[in-house]
């Protein structure tokens, strides 16, 4: 099993049969390989890996909270030039210089087609979206990007036989879903355009998989916490901002109630899960959409953990009714046992490690704080 540590470095790797000669990694599945096929036949039928055996990856929406970290991890794995970052935003110069970047608007199918063809793309990781809070603030745009854009992506992935990853979210559940240890399969009646669009993405991807064999893969992420990128307008954003404010000012005003429990994950776990899932043999996947999680906490519990390192830290509450209503309809914890069973998902970061890591990355000397 491939494992990484904070920062994305490979820690331990098992297995060694990647045909491109990459350092020992999980065997790359050919989606049409079967035990009766010769490796040559399997390779011939695999359109999800490039001629050289190494995927050529396109990341859409790559300048958001998660895209840059994902690109960095995948570039370490597959080579800088095999991972193309794209967005409609202008990249800062350090991003532009760090590897291939192209403009790709998911609402423009012609533009997308050119990118896929010109860069000989074999895997697409589709990260463009409007998140929960900004989606409610601009429903028509969220509907266009998250639903019309998705249709463009699916059609292209089917036409060019791409392996397609689309992240879903805890926001794909609603108040009528079980809220404790929410299972993979249950009632999904979200009441945000974000949630509705993600249920649509899950179902459409599974339908394309069923209809034409599209190698669609989807993980329902919890709230993802990272230090080096800004959150994009979600309901779980408080769990990032709290660290910045704790380090800068020692206090934080939270827009959710103290007792609001939500599933969360540190970004390194999230990105490693994505890579491991993309590399998992198709035969090991009993489903195409999996829950993954690491921890669940409330703002109050997070503040208490931060206060162990920043003793003067003070949290206050000024609840935003729109975000609170969204959070109250989401799971408090997820059941991700199927991901753990099928393809070996295992998180590294629980709440104490998350807090220590975030504070260290943001420049707070937690050892000194603890000593004090
Ligand atoms: N961050 C989280 O906590 C979290 C949790 C669950 C799921 N996800 C999912 O992961 C994905 C990435 O999340 P994120 O936090 O990086 O989002 P983000 O909002 O930070 O970034 C989204 C990116 O999409 C781009 N985009 C918008 N319209 C576009 C268009 N027409 N064409 C191309 N790109 C466009 C934006 O410019 C932005 O850079 C999303 O699909 C999101 O639903 C994120
Ligand atoms: C949970 C996730 O999908 C995103 N961070 C949001 O809050 O909208």
Automatic annotation (TrEMBL):
Q: Which CDD domains match?
A: TDH_SDR_e
Q: Name one GO biological process term.
A: L-threonine catabolic process
Domain NAD-dependent epimerase/dehydratase span(s) in chain numbering: 57-292
Instruction: Give the source's domain of life in one word.
Output: Eukaryota
GO function terms (MF aspect): identical protein binding; L-threonine 3-dehydrogenase activity
- Pathway connected to this protein: Amino-acid degradation; L-threonine degradation via oxydo-reductase pathway; glycine from L-threonine: step 1/2
Return the Pfam families for the record.
Epimerase
* Range of residues in the leader sequence: none
Its function? Catalyzes the NAD(+)-dependent oxidation of L-threonine to 2-amino-3-ketobutyrate, mediating L-threonine catabolism.
Please give the family membership noted in the entry.
Belongs to the NAD(P)-dependent epimerase/dehydratase family.
Q: What is the name attached to this protein's record? A: L-threonine 3-dehydrogenase, mitochondrial
The source organism is Octodon degus
This chain is encoded by the gene named LOC101592907
């Amino acid at each position: 099993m491939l494992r990484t540590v904070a920062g994305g470095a490979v820690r331990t790797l098992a297995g060694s049969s990647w045909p491109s000669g990459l350092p020992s990694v999980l065997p790359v599945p050919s989606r049409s390989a079967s035990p009766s096929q010769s490796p040559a036949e399997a390779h011939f039928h695999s359109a999800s890996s490039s001629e050289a055996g190494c995927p050529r990856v396109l990341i859409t929406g790559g300048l958001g909270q998660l895209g840059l970290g994902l690109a960095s991890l995948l570039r370490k794995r597959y080579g800088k030039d095999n991972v193309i970052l794209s967005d409609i935003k202008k990249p800062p110069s350090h991003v532009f210089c760090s590897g291939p970047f192209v403009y790709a608007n998911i609402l423009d199918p012609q533009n997308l087609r050119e990118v896929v063809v010109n860069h000989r793309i074999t895997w697409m990781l589709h990260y463009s979206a409007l998140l929960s809070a900004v989606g409610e603030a601009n429903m028509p745009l969220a509907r266009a990007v998250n639903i019309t854009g998705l249709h463009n992506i699916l059609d292209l992935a089917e036409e060019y036989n791409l392996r397609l990853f689309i992240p879903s979210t805890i926001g794909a559940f609603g108040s009528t879903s079980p809220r404790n240890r929410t299972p993979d399969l249950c009632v999904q009646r979200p009441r945000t355009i974000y949630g509705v669009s993600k249920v649509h993405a899950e179902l459409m991807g599974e339908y394309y998989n069923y209809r034409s064999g599209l190698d669609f893969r989807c993980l329902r992420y919890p709230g993802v916490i990272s230090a080096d990128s800004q959150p994009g307008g979600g309901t779980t954003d408080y769990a990032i901002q709290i660290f910045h404010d704790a380090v800068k000012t020692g206090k934080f005003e939270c827009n959710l109630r103290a007792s609001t429990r939500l599933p969360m994950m540190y970004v390194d776990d999230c990105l490693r899960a994505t890579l491991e899932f993309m590399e998992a043999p198709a035969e090991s996947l009993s489903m195409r959409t999996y829950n993954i999680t690491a921890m669940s906490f409330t703002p109050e519990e997070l503040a208490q953990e931060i206060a162990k390192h920043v003793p003067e830290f003070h949290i206050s509450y000024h609840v935003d009714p729109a975000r609170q209503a969204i959070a109250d309809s989401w799971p408090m914890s997820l059941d991700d046992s199927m991901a753990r069973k099928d393809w070996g998902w295992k998180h590294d970061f629980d709440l104490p490690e998350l807090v220590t890591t975030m504070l260290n990355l943001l420049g707070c000397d937690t050892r000194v704080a603890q000593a004090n």
